[in-house]
């Protein structure tokens, strides 16, 4: 059984850019989404890759994750049936201490930039870069499924403003 253990961080500034070693555009839609139960996601990357992903809660920051490659045409058809979608540019980062990716969200979720690090164990130590200004691990409103359902731009100003302030208070 595959286990995903990850920590997530709000990113400010461009200090991450020198660490990019690959990039891809992702579109994803949710056919079912629940923090307490099953999340079923379809994702496309560029014009030639697609996956179906099932996630189930485990313990703490861990989730059971099952991911399967599917034909691009199937993914595109499934995206048409997923009312909750988002798009982002994903960058792989060459940072130590885990498998780091960074998502630059588009559309109604801009200007959010979120870094994730996949870990081998939940208690693994991580050297958090200074441009990671706030840990988001466990904050359900920042999950991809939640942002597809309730994009950042639709948050009431009193909920959105404190996060926007964090984005402009770091020097690169």
Short description:
This protein has 172 residues and is α+β, with helices and mostly antiparallel strands.
Task: Provide the fold topology.
Layout: E1 3-11, E2 20-32, E3 39-45, E4 49-57, E5 62-69, H1 72-80, E6 84-93, E7 99-105, E8 113-118, E9 132-135, H2 144-149, H3 157-167
Antiparallel strand pairs: 1-5, 1-8, 1-9, 2-3, 2-6, 3-4, 4-5, 6-7, 7-8
What can you tell me about this protein's structure?
It is a single chain. By secondary structure, this protein is an alpha+beta fold. The protein contains 3 helices and 9 strands, in the order βββββαββββαα. It has helices spanning 72-80, 144-149, 157-167; strands at 3-11, 20-32, 39-45, 49-57, 62-69, 84-93, 99-105, 113-118, 132-135. Strands 1-5-4-3-2-6-7-8 form an 8-stranded antiparallel barrel. The model has no long low-confidence stretch (mean pLDDT 94).
